[in-house]
Each structure stands twice: as C-alpha cells, then as structure tokens.
Amino acid sequence: MSSSSRSAKTALDLAAYLDRLGIGAAPSALPPTLATLRTVQRAQLLAVPFENLDPVRGVVPALDVAALADKLVRRRRGGYCFELNGLLSAALTALGFTVRPLAGRVVLGVGDEGWASRPATHLALAVATEEGIHLADAGFGAPGALPEPLPLCDGAERAAHGRRHRLVRHEDRWSLAALKPDGWETQYVLSTTPTPSVDSEVANWYVATHPRSPFTRRLVVQRTTADAHLALLGEPPVNGTTERAELTTTYADGRSARRSLTGWAQVAAALREELGVGGVE
User: Is 153 a catalytic residue?
Assistant: First the structure.
C-alpha cells in the first residue's frame, strides 16, 4: 500500500463518509471498479452541496483530509471544488483507486476559445479503473456538472441522469462540454498533466481571498438533486448573515422556477432544508 493510501485511510473514516452519502454498504463491499466509482461520485454529488459560506465570510477553507472530513462529513457542510474533490479523492484513494488531480479553468461565458483568459481555479480528478482512466468530478457547482465519470479519451460522450457530456482532447488540454438546448457548451478545460497539491493550495487561497473572486463577493450555494439543480445567489453577508438572495430551481426538462428570499431566517431555512447545508442557524 502506498503512503498516500495509508494517510487517506488514517484520516478519513470511510464508514462515516459512506453514511453521509447514503450508501448502505461497508467499505469492503466497494472494490476499486468503475461501478464503485460511479456509485460514489453520483452519491457525493447528490449528498454534499456546493457552497462558499466560509470564503464569503473571510475564512480560507483548509484542504487537509482531516479538516475536510470534519467539515463535509461530521458537520454535514458543503464546500467548493478544492474541498469536494479533495474529499472524493481521499475516499477513492482509501477504497484502492489511483487518483490524479487535474487543474481546470471554468470557461462559462467565454467559451473554449477563451480558456487562456481564465485562471486555473477548478479541480477535477483522473481516476484509474479496470476500464481505463475516467474523469470524475463532484465539485462543479453548475447545472452542467458531470453526474457520472466519463472516460478520459478524445470524443468520449455519455448521457446520464438527464445530462449529456463529451470530452475533446486538444494538444495541451481537455475540454468538457455539456449539451444544452442550443448546442454544446464548454464548461471547463483541464490540464493534461497531474496538478501538484501546492498548486491547489495556491488556487484555493486565491479563490477564497481575492476581491475579484466570485466566491468572496456573494453567497453561492448549489445542489444537484435526482431531478433538478438548485442555485442560491445571495448578497455578501453583513455581520455573518445574508439578508437577500434568489433561489432558482432548474428541472431536467428545462423548466425553471425562481423565488426571492428576504431576511436571514428565509435564507437560512432554504440553506438547511432545500440545499442541504448543515450547521446553519
């Protein structure tokens, strides 16, 4: 067993993690297969929300496995990509998978051709299975999030849970696109080589502290459910609370519903009851 596997197993209580995900199986019943990877990624995407309550309040999230387990598993909070995929990576490593982190650039709004204008502030995973290397990602807070792993090969395309994605290999990057009513839309581009953990630490610090980061300026909470995507966008907190926000629910058939939330009591209730963020008072 590698030192990284021993470390992940020491720091992460797999039984507690699987319970958090609602997977009714012992870790020993989950071999490092593609079926297990699909089960775990999908379950984490549904169970653990994307949220930036820490950065928007001036707190830089810790990325060590013990801190991730405490926040996302024990306290039932959510997080953003560095936390969510950090937790997923630790769990998959402890289950026996070989995992490589890949830095990504979100290109929504600029398209694939504008990738160089965006910083590398996303993190995804390349995971080895008996059926080849797959892209896994439980940390992309958008309706175009990948619901199941996708083979990491040029032209790979998959429809799952009402969404369709494809990967395109360029000379120095991968592009992940989601099919929308008006055609394919690139979500992010990824490095073709593994990302050192120190680079993720730097990117995490930037995302959590830079005044132009979207995660320091307003509350952003998103959750994927079995049949919809929920997105809450709020004003920056004042004295720790957000007084106004908008909650948009987008359904698999394209319909959407939107409502305004006024006062922290309404915002907090939506965070707890609809978006699944624990520890919100």
Answer: no
- How many CB atoms within 10 Å of residue 94? 22
pLDDT value, residue 204: 98
Of 54, 112, 134, 137, catalytic: 137
Annotated active-site residue in 54, 122, 134, 229: 122
In the chain, helix, strand, coil percent, each to 5? 35, 30, 35
Distance CA 225, CA 202 (A): 31
Ramachandran class of 208: left when φ > 0, alpha when ψ lies in -120 to 50, beta otherwise: alpha
Residue with token string 């699987």: 18
Helix (H) / strand (E) element for 203: namely helix 197-209
pLDDT digits 0-9 by tens, 12-71: 999 999 999 999 999 999 999 999 999 999 999 999 999 999 999 999 999 999 999 999
- Report DSSP letters for 8-76, one per residue: HHHH--HHHHHHHHT--S-GGG--SSHHHHHHHHHHHHHHS-EE-TTGGGT-PPP-SHHHHIIIIIIS-
List, in order, residues 6 or more apart from 183 with CB less than 8 Å away: none
> Which one, of 183, 213, 177, lies nearest residue 82 by Cα?
213
**Which string of b and e fits 190-222 if b means at least 16 CB within 10 Å?**
bbeeebeeeebeebbebbbeeeebebbeebbbb
> Annotated catalytic, 154?
no
Give the count of alpha carbons within 13 A of 59, CB side only: 12
Q: Is the dihedral of CA 199, 64, 214, 276 positive or negative?
A: positive
Cα separation, 165 vs 227, in Å, equals 17
Collapse the DSSP code of 166 into the 3-class scheme (helix H, G, I; strand E, B; otherwise coil) and give the result: strand
Residue 165 annotated in active site: no
Name which of 227, 266, 265, 228 is nearest 246 in CA terms.
Answer: 266
Which amino acid appears at position 225 of this protein? T
